[in-house]
Amino acid sequence: MKRRNSLWAIGLAVATTSLLTSQLVAATTQVKLEYCNTMASISTNTMGGKIKLTNTSNETINLEDLKVRYYYTVDEPLTQTLWCDHAGLMGSKGYETITSSVTSKFEALSSPTENADTYVEIGFKSGLSQLTPNGTIELQMRITNSSWKNYNQANDYSYEATPNTYIISEHVTLYYKGVLISGSEPRNEGVVDAIVTPLELSYDKNKAVIGACETQITFNGNTLASIKNNGGSLGTSDYSIDDKGILTFNASYLESLAEGDYQLVVSFNAGKSSVIHLQIMDTTDYDFAMTLETLQLKAGEEAIIPIKLNNVSTGINNANLVFTYDKELIEVQEILAGEIVPNSELSFKSAIHQTKGTFNLLFASAKQDGSDLITQSGDMVQVKIKAKKDFTSAPFKVLSMKDIADAQLKKITVLFKVK
């Protein structure tokens, strides 16, 4: 048995592991948005300015995945038009004019505020050149109405009083694949955001794996507006919500998705949206199995539950696992590294989240040279629990598993079994 490990927050563990940090960079798209107001007059029949986007990440971005929103009040119910006078892309291939590829649409806010009832969403057609690291896009845009009547910009959320100067505006928002990555959306005072937890879900197409793909919504007076996957709305047959706010994604929808990672944007009539990170996998052809024990306990009894690895045929370099449990049924008290974990003082971290009913396990080879991999079957961890009620079942379920790879960082698939 390895000695007891300190319970670190899983985020800190990832941050201190150079391998997993590099793998997770791709999940955090960084684009800087700057806005320059070229129509500074409070009363004007033409609003707008220049927008600059800079790719500050180390990944290449498809332009169609980016959307910019400018919020304002229309003042009068007239048809709105966006004019793109010019748009240019500076990337690895040099300068490229993309004016004709700019798209726009106007939408009324479902929950208007005193300084915003409408937004224009600016995007790009598919099939364009990509925005490479350090690449920039600059576009000049104007907003007018069908009668060319003056707007009152004093009551416009995205209006910036500083003229002809690029600034980082919190009131012009930027989205990547439907997820807000820059700026703040307008909101009414007193609105309490809906809460969705957990936000990390996984679904295994392997029929031997049991467990619903579900999360809890606390609406706080709001109503569900939509659930979108990469901009496409899910139909009501794709999910269900019960009277307790449990959101369950239907198996028929999950089976239709290819293996990979998805971001599902859950939007409400007011307040902030939530983003569910969904991993779809199929471990039917597996490299090794992880076994969860079934046991019988009475209220007040304690037990140490092993989570075992079986049939380990290739060395495991790293693994990031999240388990869930019924917090009304058991209390998870302690997590110990198992006998098969090498150099556990440096390579293994765990965290218990009692209020959520989850715990995280993170293994990452400390040496990263192939010499301290998990290479044998046995106990990966031992979890000490205390029963709050009588039960007979497997106390844990797999919530998500990521970054399970060998020494060459090749993905390893896992079959979960309940004994």
From TrEMBL:
Superkingdom of origin: Bacteria
Keyword Lyase set for record: no
Domain CBM3: 27-187
Listed GO biological process terms: cellulose catabolic process
GO molecular function: cellulose binding
Protein name per UniProt: Type 3a cellulose-binding domain protein
Gene3D superfamilies in UniProt: 2.60.40.680, Endoglucanase-like, Immunoglobulins
Assigned keywords, A-Z: Carbohydrate metabolism, Cellulose degradation, Polysaccharide degradation, Signal
Range of residues in the leader sequence: 1-26
Alphabetical list of Pfam families matching this protein: CBM_3 (PF00942), CBM_X2 (PF03442), Cohesin (PF00963)
